[in-house]
Automatic annotation (TrEMBL):
This is histidine kinase. It comes from the Bacteria. CDD domains: REC (cd00156). It holds the Pfam family Response_reg. Residues 3-117 form the Response regulatory domain. GO terms for molecular function: phosphorelay sensor kinase activity. InterPro entries: CheY-like_superfamily (IPR011006), HATPase_C_sf (IPR036890), HATPase_dom (IPR003594), His_kinase_dom (IPR005467), Sig_transdc_His_kin-like_C (IPR004358), Sig_transdc_resp-reg_receiver (IPR001789). SUPFAM superfamilies: ATPase domain of HSP90 chaperone/DNA topoisomerase II/histidine kinase (SSF55874), CheY-like (SSF52172). Keywords: Phosphoprotein.
Length: 378
């Protein structure tokens, strides 16, 4: 059975309602003013609140305003009052489900509880289904992005492994010469210096391969729940996006640079933020691939502005046409050729940023194409 909180400075009313609802099987709590009511809500989160309006210390209006500040807590709320100047419209404005005038009939309150509890339950089920649909859309977009990147990433990893393999062979040959003492001392010294340079390059290619695999694992993670947000380096997420698109940049002759003042920690779902950055960079790549410019570039700038951390993605394109700017964040709107885009990327990226208490916007003042992802500084 649901739990009920009764808030009234009249002890007899609290006792009467408490006795009745306990006999009906409800778990029941009481408070004599709004201050006690707020604490009861924090401790027990009752499903139903029945509150008087006029009370000492903290009245019913202030009490309900405080409760409504918690968007995740949504109980059925009834007002009971002896004052004739309070109307049902006043109650609705305060976010209350129903108003009962004293002296009230208990059967009316019971009927109201059943009616509004059912409505809340149906609304809750709709919200759950909506979240499930959004979660599925996010996962589908995530899988599509992985599929689009996989060919380029596979080719990129193969290139790094090929370099490591051939360089290892050359190293072995140099070692064999030294072991067999085939060269004089000066030649041997030169060979050792060459070996050091080759080993440094092998290490660099191995490290790059590790970073690509690590970034791919981050992207492929299942979308996490609220309690799995983690503190992570923002720069590491941006670098992961750059690493995953390294082959795209090479093929399209695009120079991608990143500037930032200091490394910054953010609390987020890393796989979702990575998805946003990849969408923005992939869109820039797609747009620049059609340009014939000799110098094509993407610039990523991280900056700290007051209480916000901003990541700006600017490319050398001429910007978004004015007639489509207001539509680019809409679901399923795309300017790409058939088969190249679904129109989900930017709208989903915008929702992901909003879920992180941030924003994603197009900078219309820039002469180039410039998107800004903004996070609250932690």
């Amino acid at each position: 059975m649901p739990s009920i909180l009764i808030v009234d400075d009249e002890e007899m009313i609290c006792t009467y309602l408490e006795m009745h609802f306990r006999s009906e099987g409800y778990e029941t709590f009481t408070a004599k003013n709004g201050i006690e009511g707020i604490q009861m809500c924090k401790d027990h989160q009752p499903n139903i609140i029945i509150s008087d309006i006029k009370m000492p210390q903290c009245d019913g209006v202030k009490f309900i305003q405080v409760i409504k500040e918690n968007s995740e807590y949504n109980p059925v709320i009834f007002y009971i009052t002896a004052y004739s100047d309070v109307t049902i419209d006043n109650a609705y404005e305060l976010g209350v489900d129903a108003l009962f005038k004293k002296p009230f009939q208990i059967k009316d309150i019971v009927s109201g509880i059943k009616k509004f509890s059912k409505i809340k339950q149906e609304h809750s089920q709709i919200e759950i289904q909506k979240k499930l649909n959004e979660h599925q859309l996010s996962e589908n977009a995530q899988l599509k992005l992985i599929a689009e990147l996989s060919t380029g990433i596979s080719h990129n990893i193969n290139n790094h492994i090929s370099y490591i393999t051939t360089s290892s062979y050359v190293l072995r040959k140099y070692l064999e010469k030294i072991i067999n003492k085939e060269n004089n001392e000066d030649t041997e010294k030169n060979d050792l210096l060459k070996m050091i340079k080759i080993s440094e390059k092998i290490h660099a290619h191995a490290l790059m391969t590790y970073r690509i695999v690590k970034s791919m694992k981050m992207l492929a993670r299942k979308n996490a729940s609220d309690d799995e947000k983690e503190n992570i380096s923002l720069i590491s997420i941006i670098q992961s996006a750059i690493d995953l698109l390294e082959e795209e940049f090479k093929i399209n002759l695009i120079k991608c640079t990143l500037t930032y003042p200091v490394d910054i920690q953010i609390k987020c779902y890393p796989e979702q933020v990575l998805q946003v950055f990849l969408n923005l960079l992939q869109n820039a790549c797609d747009a620049l691939s059609e340009l014939k410019d000799d110098e094509k570039w993407i610039q990523i700038d991280v900056s700290l502005n007051n209480e916000k951390t901003e990541v700006a993605f600017t490319d050398c394109g001429l910007g978004i046409p004015e007639n489509v700017r207001s539509h680019i964040m809409e679901a399923f709107f795309t300017t790409k050729n058939r088969g190249k885009g679904t129109g989900v990327g930017l709208s989903l990226s915008k929702r992901i940023m909003e879920a992180h208490d941030g924003t994603l916007s197009l900078d219309e003042s820039s002469k180039n194409t410039r998107f800004v992802a903004s996070f609250k500084s932690t």
